[in-house]
Amino acid sequence: MSSPDFAHQALAARQASIGLAIATRASKDNALNAMADSLLGAGSAILPANEKDVERAKSAGVTPALIDRLTLNPARLTAMSQGLRDLARLADPVGEVVRGWQLANGVHIDQVRVPLGVIGIIYEARPNVTADAAGICLKSGNATLLRGSSSALESNRAIISALRFGLESSGMNPNLVNLVEGGHEVTTDMMNARGLVDVLIPRGSASLINAVVTGSQVPVIETGSGNCHLFVDISADQDMAVSVMLNAKTQRPSVCNALETLLIHQSIADSFLPKAVDALVEAGVRVHGDAAACALDSRIDLVAEDGWDDEFLSLDIRIGVVPAIDEAITFIRRHTSGHSETIITNDAIHQKRFTTEVDAACVLVNASSRFVDGGEFGFGAEVGISTQKLHARGPMALPEMTSTKYIVTGNGQVR
């Protein structure tokens, strides 16, 4: 049984979603631009609220990676606002005909994109997710119930207040975007709200995702952590490999598409590994590795036998030396979280093998895993990176927030 407050919120969201499902693209885009304006206009409230969250997190001894995820600044607030404007410029997925055909008897069938309805999103720390998720769900015709973590509560309150003001000023129902507050029992309410919530999306730590996936009665789109690998093949351009490696590891180490493990082909390890370690150490990265890597460079600390599966989300990296591409692929298949995997190579056969045999949502060739992002893909923003294999995989944007229905049109045909 849901708590009265949550049930009221969910019912209000469902009612609002009915009107949104028939809204025109122009009205949705107008609302997104109004939300973007409101976000920037509320900076004097959002940034001080975020400072309270950050100070509380620092006092609690939260890791630097999580502090970075939590922190907003004027540039990040501007990026959140721009993300909403970018969404407004994208095509509306609702009503898109995915495929259509006519039967021999004259009956015509169209498969058409439709909103999911009410989407519940349970996420940790990053308050920019609040605006991204609200915008994507609005554009795709869905109402949202946003359950952020307590660590970002003040930030999320201020952001949601601004978004709802923007909605209302554009003539939209503010109940399309809702902040769900409360203790752990509210998360349980969301997971049990079958009939009120159409789908749940957990985003954050493995423990959060697993709890939602295993405990929810509501259908779940599963996101995942990012234990991302980069394999430097025997034919790789080594300067390119260093550049891609540094960007993937250091550009923003606290995010799920950051590099965690570097694999080096044994035949080039003598020449490439010291160059890689030089660049990493100069960038402030702590280097860990297997016995073969440690034997080649004394600056590398030995990785424990069971130490290859977790995200660092910090300026740390693991290095492994592998005999050939077969062993690299086998290693990645054993340790990947299914997020993003990269090869640096000039060998077309090895490129084909890697992209075919590595099982991940995104596989990259000669490019940084930091590109695995809804904004970088041209989607405007993302709700998260799905590592499952059903419906949505990779950055989840507008099409992934829709379902389809079949519209069958005849002129009196009977079976």
Q: Main sheet, how many strands, which sense, barrel?
A: 7 strands, parallel
Order of helices and strands: HHHHHEEEHEHEHEHEHEHEHEEHEHEEEE
Radius of gyration: 23 Å
Distance between the termini: 44 Å
Mean pLDDT: 95
Percent in strands: 15-25%
Total of helices: 14
Alpha-beta content class: alpha/beta
Strand order of the largest sheet: 10-9-11-8-7-12-13
Globular, elongated, flat, extended or rod-shaped: what is the shape? globular
Low-confidence stretches: none
The helix content is 40-55%
| Number of strand segments | 16
Report on the architecture of this protein.
The two termini are 44 Å apart. Helix 2 runs antiparallel to helix 5. It is globular and about 70 Å long. Helices cover 43% and strands 20% of the residues. 49% of the residues are buried. Helix 14 links the parallel strand 12 (340-344) and strand 13 (362-365). It has 415 residues and is α/β, with parallel strands linked by helices. The strands form four sheets. Strands 10-9-11-8-7-12-13 form a seven-stranded parallel β-sheet, sandwiched between helices.
